[in-house]
Amino acid sequence: MKFFIDTANLDEIKEAHALGVLSGVTTNPSLVAKEKGVSFHDRLREITALVPGSVSAEVISLEAEEMIREGKELAKIAPNITVKIPMTPDGLKAVRALTDEGIKTNVTLIFNANQALLAARAGATYVSPFIGRLDDIGQNGLDLIAEIAEIFAIHDIDSEIIAASIRHPQHVTQAALRGAHIATIPYKVILQLCKHPLTDKGIEAFLKDWESIGS
Ligand code: E4P
């Protein structure tokens, strides 16, 4: 499973990129809105120049023709832009049209397996099931990852599954075990992934013992 970061914050992207594990970035309108005073297109230019992998940028329109127009504009920003499109009938039309023009797409706000299958058949490069938001309403987001992975394997579908709406490190481990190709993770959770109290304790003990040797 590959790691994407789920943020529009450049400092977080730089820090995560420096770890050498980052394969891409996802943004959404809420994440962009947190970045006060920055133009969306300028920020996408900065991110795409920094990270060579896929950078998802979401369309705002809800109508197919307008989504297609927006998607084409976004795709002009850089070759590694992936156009993020919400899972609606209009969204599917836009995915098909953009796919036919060779533009990569990420279908977002997926909450059941049929939505994922439809998105894949419309040509989506990526499908994004939101596991945390399903957990929030008392459903099991990780079960959805397993279902989609199984369906895609049975039917030889090559759209990649991005486990999205990740809330904690166990989501990451369990999404990987269930066959997600990618997890898109907030920066604070990426930092949590690096940590274990026994790692800190071990470092402390090694340094203490080393100091006791003297020089
Ligand atoms: C990913 O593409 C989504 O933008 C993101 O994971 C949504 O996460 P949230 O449910 O924490 O807003």
TrEMBL record:
GO molecular function: aldehyde-lyase activity; transaldolase activity
InterPro entries, A to Z: Aldolase_TIM (IPR013785), TAL/FSA (IPR001585), Transaldolase_3B (IPR022999), Transaldolase_3B/F6P_aldolase (IPR004731), Transaldolase_AS (IPR018225), TSA/FSA_arc/bac (IPR033919)
Predominant place of localization: cytoplasm
SUPFAM superfamilies: Aldolase
EC number, UniProt record: 2.2.1.2
Highest taxon, organism lineage: Bacteria
Gene3D superfamilies in alphabetical order: Aldolase class I (3.20.20.70)
Pfam family for this entry, one: TAL_FSA
GO CC terms, sorted: cytoplasm
Pathway recorded for this protein: Carbohydrate degradation; pentose phosphate pathway; D-glyceraldehyde 3-phosphate and beta-D-fructose 6-phosphate from D-ribose 5-phosphate and D-xylulose 5-phosphate (non-oxidative stage): step 2/3
Catalytic activity, as annotated: D-sedoheptulose 7-phosphate + D-glyceraldehyde 3-phosphate = D-erythrose 4-phosphate + beta-D-fructose 6-phosphate
Active site: 84
Keyword list, A-Z: Cytoplasm, Pentose shunt, Schiff base, Transferase
GO biological process: carbohydrate metabolic process; pentose-phosphate shunt
Function noted in UniProt: Transaldolase is important for the balance of metabolites in the pentose-phosphate pathway.
Family, similarity comment: Belongs to the transaldolase family. Type 3B subfamily.
Protein name: Probable transaldolase
UniProt source species: Pradoshia eiseniae
